[in-house]
Amino acid sequence: MVKYLITGGAGFIGSNYVRNLLKNNQDVTVVNLDKLTYAGNLDNLKDLEGDNRYKFIKGDIGDAALVDGLVRDADIVINFAAESHVDRSIGRPDDFITTDVFGTFVLLEAARKHGVKKFVQISTDEVYGSTEGASFVETDPLMPSSPYSASKAGADRLAYSYFVTYDVPVIITRCSNNYGPFQYPEKLIPLFVTNAMDDKQLPIYGDGLNVRDWIHVVDHNDAVDFLIENGADGEVYNIGGGNERTNLEITSIILEKLGKPESLKKFVEDRMGHDRRYSVNCHKINMLGWQPQYEFKQAMRETIQWYEDNRWWWERIKSGEYLEYYRSHYKE
Ligand code: NAD
Ligand code: DAU
Questions:
Q1: CATH code at 96?
Q2: pLDDT at 331
Q3: 204 lines ligand 2 (CB under 6 A)
Q4: Of the residues 38, 80, 152, 205, which should be mutated to test ligand 2's pocket, given the most ligand atoms within 8 Å of the CB?
Q5: pLDDT on residue 39
Q6: 30 dihedral zone (left: phi>0; alpha: psi -120 to 50; beta)
């Protein structure tokens, strides 16, 4: 029996990870430690109720006493927990520093003390900053440009330091933009899909020509499992989908699939410090034998369909605290 401690497992990527881990492996137990911030949602894992291999604990990764007890009982720790939204980090960076940097430190300290078998730090391609030229390789310097990406870069390097200094078996992943089911509707794709479904405008920042590399969340999580098996301790691995698209291209795919008019597009003031393009070179993980499986166009259509089929999930979110944030952010 392999014992996993997953942090942030009630969020988008973490909940997809927990579901697939339990589906694909019989001999595992999962403890999911999540603070249930605005982004954490137990609806994401409703289908796991009654599975006695799974346990949810509401708590903060910065709570050293709680974390100590949980890490002591774990073989593998995967740290998905974070404040994850760039726009929120521009408005109020405080929680980003507390959770993404200090919280990761608390987890690493416990991992060092109890000698876990693997500690995976889920970092991000945003730590490199923007590139309009070559794709980033793992040895490139980090030039994060938002409080979010800077806090993630801090955690990323802190994790590395625990490998070098204390021999904690750390693996660091830097993945590109994820899409798929259960993504909080503040992020580009679920925001635009759910707005368009309700004939609301789609706020495109700046000229809409910023580029992101999109990867299906299941491919990302599959790469994490692959690296736990095949990655080397102390190493960083880029993970990308190989699907670089402008925001305008993403918008067109959404409008076309939903049969909605171009007139829903609304160009708005640009995000402060908006990175033009993210792009990662995935040669390192590819050489180990991993490739993404999802075909972008088809998987995007299925993702959009998921939001069409699961109004119950996002309508509940969009009617609560979300509305306050959305209205103040977009000055509706
Ligand atoms: P998310 O915002 O959907 O989920 C984050 C989860 O962390 C939530 O359930 C939240 O309640 C929990 N959390 C926040 N603070 C916590 C704390 N102090 N203690 C315990 N739990 C806490 O984010 P996501 O999109 O699922 O991202 C997950 C991870 O993947 C993050 O580390 C993010 O930086 C990284 N990442 C995301 C993407 C992406 O495209 N979404 C890409 C690369 C890397
Ligand atoms: O690259 C990985 C990162 O991807 C993760 O580390 C972050 O956690 C995740 O939030 C994501 O960051 P982005 O800033 O790239 O994602 P977001 O969905 O916020 O924005 C994607 C692009 O769409 C970006 O160029 C900004 C633009 N955008 C976004 C929103 C929310 C708009 O034009 N309008 C919008 O309303």
A1: 3.40.50.720
A2: 52
A3: yes
A4: 205
A5: 97
A6: beta
